[in-house]
Amino acid sequence: MTASGRLPRSHVPALASLAVRVARDPVPYYRLLHREPGPVRVPGTAGGGDGIWLVGRDADVRAALAEPGLVADAATGDVPGLVDGAGLLAGEGVGRAEGETGRTAGAGHVPGMALASADVRADAPPPHVAGVVARAGHVLAGRLGSRASADLVPEFCDWLPAVALGAALGLPYRRTEALRRWCRAGGPAPLPLPDALAVRARGAERATAYALASLLGTLLTRPAHLAAVRDEPALIDAVWAETLRHDPPAPYLVLRARERVRLPGGAVAAGERVLCLLGAAGWDPAGYPDPGRWDPYRAGPAPVPAHPWPDLGLLTARYGLPPLLGVRGLALAPGFAPRAVGVRVRGPRRLLVRLGG
Fold first, then answer.
1. Which is more confidently placed, 345 or 115?
2. How far apart are CA 230 and CA 348, in angstroms?
3. Position 43 confidence tier, pLDDT thresholds 50, 70, 90
4. What phi, psi does 331 have (nearest 5°)?
5. Looking at the predicted structure, is the pLDDT value of residue 84 above 70?
6. 3-class DSSP state for residue 157?
7. The whole model's pTM is what?
8. 3-class DSSP state of 279
9. 160 DSSP 8-state letter
10. Edge-to-edge, what's the strand order for the sheet holding 331-332?
11. Higher pLDDT, 23 or 336
12. Residue 234, burial from CB neighbour count under 10 angstroms (0-12, 13-18, 19+)
């Protein structure tokens, strides 16, 4: 990288294969960005749009998310490979969609939305949402309890977030399957939602599913931590936070400058896009010493949550996981090792376990 913060022209052809390499292991690219003094400009390639700024240091990501001149950009399909589809709106007070006003951090809702039932906070959840999630966790765990083996991704992680999201949106439980299909495949929504909330809801369902798979895979490879969480379920909060930092399910957020803005290390012109790498921020050694170590007892600042609706995700884990963790004989299948993949949403696609049934 040059002193001006731009990639040398010789690196441009390699951008076409960047998504494939990031899907395998994004950490080397996180480390490159951590060495830069500010945003890094990636120029456009032939037929590939107008380029984008990459922001990966923790302090720079926080500055970008707090900048009122940067707004959430849903039109990210013109960056081939690196990002695909609609992008994810930021959660819990970071990032704004065009035309929206600011809000209090942690309020757990999209500004200007009319759906009061979607105001979900993990520290004060609506009783019906917590109850529905807890009951669903018991039902799903009960179905697995008599089995000898299972894949927890389709049989647990793909279902619990849809149940939680449906409860938060006030959707009847019988519509959970329709909601899950909509979150995965799109099409007409099973209930009317403001556009910004619809994007956030779909992103949150997917991100929670992958985060649950990462969290469970991590605990099942660390028997001492698994035993500690079984003995003290309140530790799930810390485990969830460390999972979002170490294995971010929604690793990036695309913003667009609606006016010229200045970030640490450089200025962004009006109309330009900024790719905030939330995953890279959580691996910044300046904020999180020894970032490759998974440590739910880690001290220091809370990382920027790499999740479009962190409170709803935390609520899902807090109330839905204990029944599964209590299933007799739960352990990884012999010879199986969880592996996270993906760019836009990231996590294990399979989680093979043996059970005591």
1. 345
2. 22
3. low
4. -160, 160
5. no
6. helix
7. 0.83
8. helix
9. H
10. 149-151, 352-354, 331-332
11. 336
12. exposed
